[in-house]
Amino acid sequence: MRLVRRVKEMQSISRRLHEEKKRVGFVPTMGSLHDGHLSLIRLARKMCDTLVVSVFVNPTQFSPSEDFTRYPRDIERDKKLCESEGTDILFAPETDDMYPEDFSTYVVEERLSLPLCGRSRPTHFRGVTTVVTKLFNIIRPTFAVFGQKDAQQAFVIERMVRDLNFDIEIVVAPIVREKDGLAMSSRNRYLSPKEREEATAIFRSLSGVKQMVRKGERKTSPLIKLIRDEIARTETGRLDYAEIVDTRTLSPVEVIEDDVLVAVAAQFGRARLIDNIIIKKDEL
Ligand code: AMP
């Protein structure tokens, strides 16, 4: 595995891979890799000639009040994990190489970025679309793998790729969970033992929603109430949002008639956690 730390060096490798007509798979991450990330890497590995993983904690997707400086970083461990999963190139650029002091160009998706996490994190997706565009230009992958865990992010990236005609296939991989259902996240390490235990309420509530829909409930208000109640029963959790939205528009629906995304964000101690399920029309 080759560790690449400079944008210019990565670009010259990408140019060569392109000339050699390699099928390049790409998995962007912010590092502190866990089994969720590794599942994306394994999926990509099976689909490509050359596998590039990036580790970059992207400052532009954090607001000044968020956890950019204390976001967990462990490049040595990430390096070993990437290597053992058969990664060919680990791209881990420095912040000032990605964002020179006079950086002033951003990519903004103006519709799907607005609801859900966009409401509580108004500049977040602008940072995501900007850094993903930069990474796509630097790496020029054939396809890139994103996790369903960040469902809105995946929808925004798919829209950006379509709207701006990136010749890159977007693959979305399922959510990997701990045994008790908590979605794996680098931020789970912020949780105290009590918060960690109570954070299982998020997936429990999503499973409850799924069950109610199976039993025939189609109105979303009782389903959202179920999520609210489940989080309210905890001592340490505070709900940011619980919404049931159309998967094409991310607009709230009152009655489930088509594919919907059931999305939850909740703060447990210092950790803002998100999770979701998709309910397909054919499950109704
Ligand atoms: P992050 O390092 O949090 O930016 O995540 C990098 C990629 O891994 C994103 O596409 C995430 O959606 C994905 N990811 C993070 N956690 C999980 C998980 N538990 N299951 C599946 N994918 C995940």
Give structural notes.
This protein has 284 residues and is of the alpha/beta class. The protein folds into two domains: 2-173, Rossmann fold (3-Layer(aba) Sandwich); 186-278, Pantoate--beta-alanine Ligase, Chain: A,domain 2, CATH 3.30.1300.10. It has ten helices and nine strands. The strands form two sheets. It has a six-stranded parallel β-sheet with strand order 1-4-3-2-5-6, sandwiched between helices. Strands 7-8-9 form a three-stranded antiparallel β-sheet. Strand 5, helix 7 (151-163) and strand 6 form a beta-alpha-beta unit. Helix 6 (124-139) crosses helix 7 and helix 9 (200-214) packs antiparallel against helix 10. 39% of the residues are buried. The structure holds adenosine monophosphate.
Write the layout of secondary structure elements.
Layout: E1 2-4, H1 7-19, E2 24-29, H2 35-47, E3 50-55, H3 75-84, E4 89-91, H4 95-98, H5 117-120, H6 124-139, E5 143-147, H7 151-163, E6 169-173, H8 193-198, H9 200-214, H10 220-232, E7 237-246, E8 260-268, E9 271-279
The structure holds adenosine monophosphate.
Task: State the gist of this model.
This protein is an alpha/beta fold and 284 residues long.
